[in-house]
Amino acid sequence: MKKMDNTATGSWTPDKNPTSSTMKNSCHPNLKMFLAALSFAYFAKALSGSYMKSTITQLERRFDIPSYLIGIIDGSFEIGNLLVIAFVSYFGAKLHRPKIIAVGCILMSFGTFLIAMPHFIIGRYKIETSVRATVNSTNNLSPCPESSPESTRTGDRPSILLSRGCERESSVSMWIYVFLGNVLRGIGETPVQPLGISYIDDYAQSENAAFYIGCVQTIAVIGPVFGYLLGSLCAKIYVDIGYVDMETVTITPGDARWVGAWWMGYLIAGTITLMSAVPFWFLPKSLPMPVDKHDTSCTPEQTRFIKDSPTMEHKFRPEEPANLHQMTKEFVPTVKSLLGNPVYIIYLCVTIIQFNSLIGMVTYKPKYIEQHYGQSASKANFLMGMINIPAVALGMFSGGVVMKKYKLGIMGAAKFAFGTSLLGYFLSIFFLAMGCENSKVAGITVSYTGVEGLSYKEPSLFSDCNSGCLCSIREWDPVCGENGITYVSPCLAGCASSTGSGRNTVFDNCRCIALASTQPGNLTATLGQCPHRDNCDKIFPYFLALSALSSFIISLGGTPGFMLLVRCIKPELKSLALGIHTLATRTLAGIPAPIYFGAIIDTTCLKWGYKTCGGRGACRIYNTSAYRIVYLGLTLGLRTVSFFLCISGFALLKRHIKREEKYALTNGSAELESLRKEENNSIHCEQFILASDCNPDRETCL
């Protein structure tokens, strides 16, 4: 029997098994599959989320709504998270995590399809224009119908009676479907991050966990690249493509009234998200545990046995049946224990403030590029996808590599994340100096004589040159005069006639253009706004370069900052900590940030559009200088506040680390003494452990 014991004992020695070191550093096949599936799910949810951001201006124009209402729609995603995230994070960690993630992906896809639904039940998009595509080039159309000055001042051009279609359209706001679809997307996305990240951290080697999470987050950042590129492609395509003759469309993608095929991208994103659910159905509830993450309840003898056994390099967690009553009973005490951690609370406060800044900035950045630098929605989305997002992806990946290479601890990760964030903050200040002047629009940013001066009052659109015309101040049908000034409509430009048709229409004998021009004779105007000045085009490349650099530097600290959250929490509280972190940031940042950013941006609007059925619609032109100040100022101001909180956070973190080191030292000494006492009885302990770990059949064989 002793010989058998020696043989068995010898078989447990790692040196006698050539595959032991390979097993020790390898990644379990199911973990590889989970990594691939989670990466695809992250890609899908990031693609649909970024596509939503890219359609901000398209939705504004299609549904004739202001920016703050778009902020509510955008924040509805976080509302969906708020409804279920705490329970999904807590209960989901104790149930079958991969299958819960699969259900979430299916819900996300259904929500994405629901967002596209209004396009198929709403009427065709109507452009407010005075141009008629059916007019022959040989016929004249007078944009300036004769009337008395009194009738012009007292009211608008006689309004057309509301049609049945208008009544039907006004009976229900179609943007509600977009809101509800985004809520459903938020509910479906809830389990992906907390359950996915905790699953990786549970079953990956400690030294590899940060690298794996960095890889997943890098893939997640690649998703927005395709999301914004998809947004750029769809923004080029007219919203009613296939239903209208494009020859009759008199506007271009650069026009403030242009609406792209926003619905098409949602159908594509929904299909991809649905596909991402498939792999999770074939993954197990648990995987083999790495040797450095065995159950802490094991005795020192069990610890030594596991480390010595090549066949026990990984140990499965016992799959106990879920006791929902017991789980519910422990929920409140567990939350109290988590919220009693001061380091976690400070971390929450800092990330909430920084997420307010980040979410508000990202949501309205394409719109900022459109309005401030005069770019089309398609080009703004393309630049976001090809310049900003790859810089963020590279930064996230590099941060994970740095943390793995230099084996940064909790304090090292905190310092690295803070340093990169502070450097990115200083670089972002330079954006304030990269401003463009307002476009010259008669009656809004300049007078009809060409003198610069802002006006938020609609009566300033009238002048002596158009007093004989019955013009509508509600129309936005801009024309560019030969003098380089944009006029709100051909009527307000005082144009007496027009030639041509469609996009080739030219307006002649424009009296208001003559007021601000030194050229005599017949002054004409063409469709669309006048292009921005050359100095703005020169500044724009520098803006893009600085934007890419600052995005890269800030995102360098993303992975170390995230691992700081994971490592300062007890293992059993990890899923709940991630869930509450996501809940708090989305509740206090994801929901309000787009709303108040949008509301503040709305205050800089100079000319509002009007709905077909009456009421204020989407903004047509902004005060670009004020837009720049409130948009960038609010972004930088929030980040300034977060840095002050970081100072107290470092003090608490140092105290936390010292306390943990002291506890580990005391506990480690006691454990070492226990191991020495048991040294002489090691063979008997190993036999006992073998008996306790093996099943009855195995014991009989031995």
Automatic annotation (TrEMBL):
The entry's keywords: Cell membrane, Disulfide bond, Glycoprotein, Ion transport, Lipid transport, Membrane, Transmembrane, Transmembrane helix, Transport
Reaction catalysis annotation: L-thyroxine sulfate(out) = L-thyroxine sulfate(in); 3,3',5'-triiodo-L-thyronine(out) = 3,3',5'-triiodo-L-thyronine(in); L-thyroxine(out) = L-thyroxine(in)
Signal peptide stretch: none
Record's subcellular location: Cell membrane
GO biological process, one term: sodium-independent organic anion transport
A GO MF label: sodium-independent organic anion transmembrane transporter activity
SUPFAM superfamilies xref list: Kazal-type serine protease inhibitors, MFS general substrate transporter
Keyword Calcium annotated: no
Every Major facilitator superfamily (MFS) profile domain range: 34-649
Its membrane topology: Multi-pass membrane protein
Protein name from the UniProt record: Solute carrier organic anion transporter family member
Lineage, broadest ranks: Eukaryota, Metazoa, Chordata, Craniata, Vertebrata
